[in-house]
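Recall the central idea of this unit: under ordinary conditions, the amino acid sequence of a chain determines the structure it adopts. In this exercise we apply that idea directly, starting from the sequence alone.
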Amino acid sequence: MIFASKLKKYQKTLPDTCNLTQRNAHLAVETTNRMGRILALFSQEAQLVKALRKEDPKAQRQLYDKYSHRMLALCFRYVCDEMAAEDVMVEGFLKVFEKINQFNSEGSFEGWIRRIMVNEALGYLRKQKRILEDNLSDEANNVPDYIHADQNLETQELMALIETLPVGYRTVFNLYAIEGYAHIEIAQMLGITESTSKSQLHRARALLQKMVAEWQNDYKKKVDYEKASC
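Accordingly, the structure predicted from this sequence is:
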């Protein structure tokens, strides 16, 4: 009886093998499903690229439907005109279809598309003679550093402020801060020096921070007025 009692007590301290097995099986299924989704994504993208290389109209439509919204927003950040941004985007997609054989499937497909769209937007600015040059205005030279946007400033409002930056500042800011290009790459893309790129980024940030500070001041006045009206 003593042995049986001790055995029973010892068994209670053991892990529930059945539950452990079930949990492990559940984790294995989840992992398999997750990997399946990832592989399916790669497979779908590979199939889409393959169909695009065959100039399949359905594949071209699928690509447009999948990325047009994001690419239109990207183009608009540079040209700041809805109709022009749409024209740039369409030209960009035509370039994607034309150059699809140049995509080597090693990097991100969307990243490759974005680079084409950026180049197309920069080409548009050059044609409009709005692209920056080395002798850009020093309009933000003496703008002091202001505090960054706080939690009251929504992303949409911040993007609206970026749109009001001078073309040169906005272009460098978009390329560096949003697209992630290095200054040496920006210099090559825009035909300027690396130091000019750095200078324009600094001025863009300073001017943007000034606008953010003014926005915050107006926001505070609005909040104080609403409180006083209650």
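The chain has two domains: 23-127, 155-229.
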